[in-house]
Amino acid sequence: MRKNVLIIDDVKDQAEGLSKGLSKLMPNYTFENYHSEQDILDAIENRFFSLAIIDIRMDGFAFDGIDLAKKIFEVNPFSHVIIVSAFKDEYFPRLKDLLMTGKVVDIQDKEGFDTWLPKLNKTIESYYENIEKDPSEINNALLQFYSEAKNEIDTYRKGEKFEHFMSLMFQSIGFNQVLKRVKDQSLNEVDLIIRNDIEDSFISKFGKYILVECKNMPITKVNKNDFIVFQNKLKNTNGLAELGIIATTGFITRNTYIEAIRESGESRKILFLSNPEIEKLIKADNKLSTFKNLIDNQVKDN
Length: 302
Known about the structure:
- By secondary structure, the protein is an alpha/beta fold.
- 49% of the residues lie in helices and 19% in strands.
- The chain contains twelve helices and ten strands.
- It has a five-stranded parallel sheet, with helices on both faces.
- Helix 4 links the parallel strand 4 and strand 5.
- Helix 11 packs antiparallel against helix 12.
- The longest helix has 21 residues, at 113-133.
- It is elongated.
- The two termini are 30 Å apart.
């Protein structure tokens, strides 16, 4: 798993200083710091991270660190947090509920960086060592989200849940930023736009972005017309995206596959992810390798 850590603090100097200090101490990790209300909320929704270091007290904000931890657990089921504060006693009654989730790695006092950074270093490294030993927690969380998306009855929430699941799936593969419901210059709405920032020679050849169309339709199949509409969206990126993905909780018609073969001379490629492919990705310990194999099998030689 990509080792991305969010640092959230209402004091800019504190957030930036902690990020800079940890980056020097742990060069193989990525630390991103956020200190304004909107940037913090956007990062929780759209950035990939598996650990967040959160200050409890946030003066003048509409939320505090405990509210943010709950939000993180809601939108990112395989994320954990380290809580830091000089005011633990003041927040203790609410901290007890947070501890019951099992997702709080540690609660630490703010100290001088010389004393505090080595402690954080040890805590962070221990957390990631445990994840690498047992990736089942991530896979189980993805499977639960996938099941909830498929079983949702409300039409709007059904689509929303599936898009969120796919966002988490691509983040678990290693993509750092996934944006939801984006309109391109031609006003076509794309369900997900993935920034193609993985350092991999095979993946990087598909352009700067990957477009994803999400169709939570267990009964209705993805048809030829769905493919053509999505292919046009891909063309409208003017080469910025050379790979598109149609993801569905249902199935894909034979005519759609035939149309994909007919259009296989195009430089742009479209990958189909239906139930079998999605379940392979959920269960895979090495999700990037499995994702590359799916691309290889479907579109590489077309």
